[in-house]
Amino acid sequence: xxxxxLSLALAExxxxxxxxARLVTDEIFELMRSALVRGEKVQISGFGSFEVKDRPARIxxxxxxxxxxxxxxxxxxxxxxxxxxxxxxxxxG
Length: 93
Fold this sequence. Notes:
Strand content: 25-35%
Number of strands: 5
Order of helices and strands: HHEEEEEH
Distance between the termini: 23 Å
Number of helices: 3
Structural class: alpha+beta
């Protein structure tokens, strides 16, 4: 599902204009992005949590030349599904 599809489904589900649903969707993602940039964890009960993790610097290898290269430290966003979401995904039948 894309962001546009999500906005359209939201508009249909709660009976609002597509334009308004797009604004709501955009604002939710912007609020989540801002929180992650500040280093905050975003927890959505029944769904899961998003957080920023620090990845340490390491030595990698160029696959073409097998030369060692230094990969700098960086931050990465990660998602951990909640128990309810895991259960829904793994539900049989």
